[in-house]
Amino acid sequence: MTALVSYDVSDNKRREHVSRILLDYGTRVQESVFWVDAEDDSVERMRARVKAAVAAEDSVWIVPVCLVCGKRIETLGTARVPKLAEYFVI
Predict the structure, then answer these.
(1) Helix (H) or strand (E) segment spanning residue 72
(2) How far is CA 14 from CA 21, 30, 36, 49, 56, in A?
(3) Is the separation of the CB atoms in 79 and 31 below 8 Å?
(4) How far apart are CA 13 and CA 50, in angstroms?
(5) 20 near 30, Cβ under 8 Å?
(6) CA end-to-end span of the chain, whole Å?
(7) Contact status, residue 65 vs residue 2, Cβ threshold 8 Å
């Protein structure tokens, strides 16, 4: 699964914890935005870890990105489009 994960966490300690969790699964593309390209079971583990780390007042978005949509991502300025993995079944 490829996904864009964004968070808004009010507490510094929790925010750092969420950031470290997401670094285990993806690449930081903005301060609080990560690009995750992982197997579905890894994404489920990430989701569970993040859910356990955030509080009721925090916000986390996990937005799936399909291969076709991922190829249509547009960036401006210094932003770079993360590399989309292509999978082949033989």
Answers:
(1) none
(2) 11, 18, 20, 12, 12
(3) no
(4) 13
(5) no
(6) 19
(7) yes
In this predicted model, what pLDDT tens digit does every residue of 27-82 receive, in sequence order? 999 999 999 988 899 999 999 999 999 999 999 999 999 888 888 888 899 888 77
CA–CA dist 85, 32 (Å, integer):
22
Check residue 65 and give left, alpha or beta (phi > 0: left; psi -120 to 50: alpha).
beta
Do residues 37 and 26 touch, judged by C-beta distance below 8 A?
Answer: yes
Query: Which CATH number among 3.40.50.2300, 3.40.630.10, 3.20.20.70, 3.30.70.240 corresponds to the domain 2-70?
Result: 3.30.70.240
Amino acid letter, 52: A
Place of tokens 């930081």: 28
Taking Cα atoms as reference points, which of 22, 19, 20, 23 lies closest to residue 9? 19
